[in-house]
Write a structure and sequence with these properties.
The chain is mainly alpha-helical. It has one domain. The chain is 82% helix and 3% strand. The protein has a two-stranded antiparallel ribbon. A hairpin with a 4-residue loop joins strand 1 and strand 2. Helix 1 runs antiparallel to helix 4 and helix 3 runs antiparallel to helix 4. The longest helix is centred in the N-terminal third of the chain and has 70 residues. The relative contact order is 0.14. The C terminus is likely disordered.
Length: 211
Amino acid sequence: MTLRRSTAAILAVLLLLLVVGAAEAQTDVLDRDSLVQAQSAQLQTAKQAHLWRVAAWGGTNALGGLALVLASSRSSTSTRWHFGAMSAGWGVVNVGIAAGGLLATGTPPTEPAALLAAERQFHDILLFNLGLNVAYSAVGATMLGASYYGIENVGRWRGFGTSLILQGAGLLVLDGIAFWASRGRITSLLDAGMQLSVQAAPIGVAVTLQF
């Protein structure tokens, strides 16, 4: 009788552990799904917000640059005219890029691996753009500096150079904001993936990597 009671007690404990483990595993799955959905929505919103900021920056430069061109003389106020022309050109390009990105926005990923890959791709694109922005400003600074060494068309060099510095700096700020936000989301995904991977097992703890 005592042996039967002991066996029944052991079976009851094992059954309880199995039930608790299954419940906690189910909770982990639900938590992971909620996290993925929330992070997916954040990525989608972040991309759109970044593109709208770029569009606003581009539109401001396009209109402001065009106003300067119309209000300036290419011969008597060459620096201002060329600054306006370059700014307007860059503005139109930025608006076009932003519009294309907004139109091409598709359905956000819903799988953990796909979401992490999409976030990393966005992060890497922004990192590449940050490097380009520094290069733009460096080229502009070189042109501006060269204009003081007796070259021809001084106004063009100074106007174009100053505009390039401004464009590079402005886009550096916009891309930088989106870049650091993306890094934060990647860190959150990886940290959450490690936490959600710890699941209760009947005996001990099972650890798997979700992302």
